[in-house]
Design a protein that fits this description.
Elements: H1 3-21, H2 30-43, H3 48-58, H4 63-71
């Protein structure tokens, strides 16, 4: 099956990214982590992603806002 090598590489990259970026990953925020990983993975090799990275680093999401979004 052709999708298996791709999925193996994607999961391997995901695990490496999570271990290298975060000290702990909770089930509660897992969708957020996966969204960020997907975003970064899809923009790899794209020159515009450098500008997007700078914008993201300049405007972090405060914890209280994250909690408010998750609880509604």
């Amino acid at each position: 099956m052709k999708i298996f090598p791709w999925s193996h590489a994607a999961f391997s990259n995901l695990k490496s990214w999570l271990r290298g970026t975060y000290h702990g990953v909770s089930r509660k925020y897992l969708p957020r982590y996966l969204d960020e990983f997907s975003f970064r993975f899809n923009l790899r090799g794209n020159e515009a992603s450098i500008a997007i990275e700078r914008v993201l680093q300049a405007s972090p999401c405060p914890y209280h806002r994250l909690e408010a979004e998750l609880t509604g």
